Amino acid sequence: MSLNKKITKEYYNDILKNNVSLAEGVIKQSAENYIKNNDFPTTKDENWRKTNLTNLLKHQFSCAKKVNFEEQTLSAFNISGLKANILVFVNGYFYQEYSKIIEKNNSLQIESICRIKEKNPEIFEKYFNKTNIENANIFTAFNTAYAQDGAFVYIPKNKIVKNSIHIYNFTDGNTQKTISQVRNLFIAEENSEAKIIQSFHSLSINYTLSNIVTEIFLEQNSKINFNTFQGEGDDAHQINNIQVVQKRNSSFSNNIATLCGSLVRNDLGVKIDGEGCETDLNGLYLPDREQHIDNTIFVQHLKPHSYSNQLYRGIIDNKASSVFFGKVLVGEGAVKTFAEQNNNTVLLTKYAKSHSKPQLEIYNDDVKCSHGSTTGQLDKDALFYMQTRGIGEKRAKILLLNAFAAEVLDKIKIDTYKNYLKFLIDKRMTGEKISGHCYKMGECRVY
Amino acid sequence: MIKIKNLHASIEGKEILKGINLEIKPGEVHAIMGPNGSGKSTLASVLAGRDIYEVNSGEVEFDGKNLLELKTEIRAREGLFLAFQYPVEIPGVTITNFIKSAVEEQRKHRGLEQLTAAKFLKMMKEKKALVEMEAKLNNRAVNAGFSGGEKKKNEVFQMAMLDPKFAILDETDSGLDIDALRIVANGVNKLKNGNNAFLVITHYQRLLDYIVPDFVHILYDGKIVKTGTKELALELEDKGYNWIKK
Asked: What is the DSSP letter of A333?
């Protein structure tokens, strides 16, 4: 089942018509070779054991097209109170007319990656695909060779970006089964700092596949706080791969909140390639119906004195399922590493499933590492206790679930975004319908 | 206030309560004593509505209503309170948020206007003072990491906030040192008025020096085998439970 059978004949023509090709030369060739010689991962691959792509691959996809988009649509998905630099992508294409950069600075770049490639090829080439992600799997190869566009953020030395950077990604299948491919590149130069939010939304309930690759480079002493909100429709699929390289004393925090989507796969790789780094990875996922959400994480500690933490929590409803596969590798030289991993899931029904596998691989004996995993129902004793105080069963459940989620949400550093998520999650729990933000969200509820 | 008639209850097919009869009137304090496994905590749980127990027969009339037909939260809103022997830890839910939800639901049920934030906080402060509970606990998660004494104070604090008609104290004294015991008992005594009633479950006569009961019942093997006044508790302390078993 090779990739070319899964896309329409017109796919490559459509891509050529629309775009600047990001990859060239050796990189492009390497990616194309990978596509030619490899197939889609199956459940026989260790990294995909619990995420089955069979249903997704029953279909043939065309290249997502540019669609009409209106200002008012954007405002419907707005995070209330957030003052941000905004980039807008629809179906993988950049919509400059809706993008708004409020923080003007000569060397700060918040742009479309295709435009940067033309305007500033030096910086583009210095970093593009330097995580060698093109041959990780067929999705990253496909993205490397044929991504449409994506966000580019370059934070110059010593610059602290005060306002957040909000990157909107909308998909609109427009009655066709389409693929959108987004390629992001974020670079934080020495001693710089930025907060980034990337949000994914569907504009229609269509069978879509978003294939996203994000590369993030943190130079010495820099800080990036990266937040991903996934709220696409019930027929939307997302393969999202984030690769991070951290240099000395840098700090990277990642918060990923998945509220909707038929199949969501998040691969997150962090290479700690400098001493004294901090890496804080958090995730919250709330699949329902028959949705499937997979978070596969690989943190490599290659230098001494670094700290990494993973806290992933899931609330699994109906017949939904989730995967947490978190691996931490501590290299021979990475002494005094402190690594923690925690995954907790609550199953709301007897059909809900959670697969959890925290894993440590340690090659030196001067480290402090721990991991833990819990899966269970809501605490019946706590529910009864609350009911004896007059709190109704539903409200008690919502209080407990909100409390469970809060531990992850409270790690989010952008207050307006945190409140936005709390609002959406609370609505989700109570089953109240809200327009926009997350398709059909009103149907997700606590029984 | 509450009339229990020939109450039989079991857990996993094993009968624990074998015909309890008890009537408590407004303004009264009753104490139930008895050896381990006699059914004291089961009685408390059944009255509160714990679903792991099955009521096989009998009736409980609470303030004119059929208590056994009501869901746990409705019993609470109707004015029944259970102070737990082992208060449950609820990570992530702050005391303020927890008790606010409870007060709101109870006031709604009783057709009372909701309290303003200022009035609610003032009330919290007053009721905390009643059990000498530290203010800094407000933003801590309910019972999480509390000492035994703090947990029991928290139970009495919640009782004070909810102002029940009928409160069951399930071994509220166990595990308390004498100072904590005095504080907890004082709290209960201050809440006593002519209109409410208390059922105090305890192993030890000591608590009854502080919370003086009008009646003492001895529960043995699922039945009340003896009823008397506070002197009965002293006699029991003196002679031990073997005296009852005969």
From this structure: T
